[in-house]
Write a structure and sequence with these properties.
Order of helices and strands of chain B: HEHEHEHHHEEHHHHHHEHEEHHHHHHH
Oligomer: heterodimer
CATH architecture of one domain in chain B: 3-Layer(aba) Sandwich
Helix content of chain B: 40-55%
Strand order of the largest sheet of chain A: 1-2
Strand order of the largest sheet of chain B: 2-1-3-8-4
CATH superfamily of the largest domain in chain A: MetI-like
Number of domains of chain A: 2
Number of strands of chain A: 2
Structural class of chain B: alpha/beta
Radius of gyration of chain A: 27 Å
Largest interface: A-B, 47 and 48 residues
Number of strands of chain B: 8
Shape of chain B: globular
Mean pLDDT of chain B: 90
Largest sheet of chain A: 2 strands, antiparallel
Largest sheet of chain B: 5 strands, mixed
Strand content of chain A: under 5%
CATH class of the largest domain in chain A: Mainly Alpha
CATH topology of one domain in chain B: D-Maltodextrin-Binding Protein, domain 2
Amino acid sequence: MSTATATRPRSSGKARKAPKAPIQKARRIQNSLAERIAPYAYVAPFFIIFIVFGLFPLLFTFYVSLFDWNPIGEQTFVGLKNFESLFADGRFWNALLNTFAIFLISTIPQLLLALFLAHLLNHARLRWANFFRMALLVPYITSVAATAIVFAQIFDKNFGLINWVLGLFGLPSINFLATNYGSWILISAMVMWRWFGYNTLLYLAGLQALPREMFEAASVDGASSWQQFRHLTIPALRPIIIFTVIMSTIGGLQIFTEPLLASPESGLTCGAGRQCQTLALFLYEQGFGQFKFGYGSAIGVVLFVIVVVVSLLNFYLSTRTRKAR
Amino acid sequence: MKKSVTAVTAAAAAIALALTGCSSGGGASSDDPNAEVAFWSFTGINAKDGVKEYLEKQPDAKVKLTEVGSTTETATALTAALAGGKVPDLVMIQNDDLPQFVANSSNFVDLRTLGGDDVADGYLPWAASAATAEDGSVVGIPTDVGGLGFAYRADLFEQAGLPTEPDEVAAMWSDWDAFIEMGKKYTAATGKPFVDNIETSVFFSTVNQVSEKYYSPDGELVYDKNPQVKDAFQVAVDTKDAGISAGIAAWSSGWAPGRANGAFAVTVAPSWILSGIKTDAPDTAGNWRVTTVPGVGGNWGGSVIAIPARAKNPEAAWQYIETMMSAEGQEDHFKKSGTFPAASEAVASEAVRAYTDPFFGDSKIGEVMATSVEKFPSFYNGPDTTPINGALLNTLVELEAGNVTSDKAWTTGLEKAKEAIGD
């Protein structure tokens, strides 16, 4: 029996008209059935877990968002009222603005910095390259809570390092958490600190996969370091850049831990005037701080739609640039 | 509608349990007082010591203690459990989180069914009433209260030419106007702010010295009409306008350094905050004093202990409450752990009244705290008390940051409160 019969039982069975014993035939059918089911069984665990912990909660969130839902009390159907109130709620638009502002302030400089660092680390004559590469991962493996405490101390308005330095130059101290811009910078700094090493390593891995001869040839031809960066490094890294942009978008729009921990004194609002409350934190405040599950779910649904739209936009732009090439 | 929702939730829970291979343990509820009690507490309240004392008193009992997390995290976990998970037999609930559980009292065992109609009688009346539902069912038994005092730096007061003895200080700031006057003197003499902030140290004290807070006694929202709330808020605004506040919020990154380096001389001090001052400012040992707050009485914090309606071993949980929450049990627990009692007899006991601490210059801490909770007025708190509180506190923080002006602070606060409770 050839392997072809094993993998394509139907066509081979039809092709050969040779008579077979009934028992053999039955076994073959049994085998082929098991073989056809097997692949589904192998992937089933992922899909079952995905359905239980991914798809079901997602759909259930849509369902809950149509209710005035107290988890331990009454649940009343209210239709789209939660969405109506949400779009009329100043706190929602504030959170939306904060989310996009923090996303842009943290992602763009971060990816540029990562690209630049990767280019430096890829340099053939760099000493202790491995040490620097390892060191880049330290912020990534440090607990966010520890990072948040340290950053909050550095940015503190009374006794923080930054304001101490400003004071040395006779400048007035800045109350970062009291203004939108200040708190966006604080949160973005924490996000950048955590992720720049990770993205640098991704870019570096991409660079190391490139043939070194390409860069050598470029230097022989008299290309400056900047020209190499602009015309070799960036085009070669395009797929990885697209990947990091999409991942940063998905992560950036759902940013939660940093604003939660940046300002423990103001609870779940990140600043007394919600200066750095993101959509994810607003969702948590409404859902789990005030137990308005329906309203919280409505925020979740809107956040989901936003992430999908922005991801599609990313995808469209990236495929278009690929085609343009 | 509600029925089908519950059915969907139940079905979802059943699927989740079946798929992940969990089981809810099985077995019907037990009447055995020594059955194992699943006990959820929060961190920072010495629950382990309490359980240890309990096992000394009831050697045959079994307790499985889980310190879930902060008070808020514990309330969140409890909410999730009540909504459809496995509930504990016994749970601690902090007073700020309490109103929403009391408003949905059917989730808990009415403790009158286990301890008789007078089960809550021996406790401070306001603490017991906070845990009693509208229909009279007793959701929880008060385990402890916070009390309220002010801690101040005697050494800094001396430099500013102010009295240093707790009794003299208390007499001098008998009301809030006098407090602000003292602050002006201090700031004029030292050039430094007097009090750490206006939201927790001032407003949180003043707004709890009222006979009626955000709700009328029959449960109607009156926070925007009640002149007492507006006056309490105005004291905080006046404190800010007097220029005597450091604007350092409680638990902000500057608070711990400020306690240590004299950036302010006065801070609010419920009993449970005192250990934090010791930890944050060990070098100031002997410089702090504790005395009564301006105005009359006060409380910040405290918790109750409750039995969820679906608890498997309510009898065993009740035995824990009966043993540990009696006046005697709370007095013993205070002696061992410093948790301030809520049972009236324990509050009046010698052990509590005579409590002092050399770190605070042997100030009469026990007497200060006990008097504050005995004078604390009883007012109705509803499910929106905590969100309204948060909105007004946040407005005062914004005032200190310069994002809101003094004359607009009250209207801004009301807008924020409305936003916070609006559906």
